[in-house]
Amino acid sequence: MNRTKPMYSLLSAFLLAICIAFTLPACTAKTDDASIQQRVNEELKKDRAGAALNATVDNGVVTITGECSGDNCAQDVADKVRKMQGVKDVQVQVIAKP
Length: 98
Prior knowledge:
Radius of gyration: 22 Å
Distance between the termini: 82 Å
């Protein structure tokens, strides 16, 4: 009878470790609109072509508006934004200036 008690303690510790392992990534991943907006704005500031662009986020859908120079500048920025965690879709409404 004394052998079953340590077995339950070991099993309980193991199950607790599994639960923690699965919940920790969920705590660190920020996919709400505000955090996506912040990351997108940081990306736009880094990119010279994207400096004149604006972005809004609604339920994970990012809408990029404004003007940029170059044929592919809007597409390049959109491609970077699409790869961000939590982004479900990217809508591009940009005027390309030659």
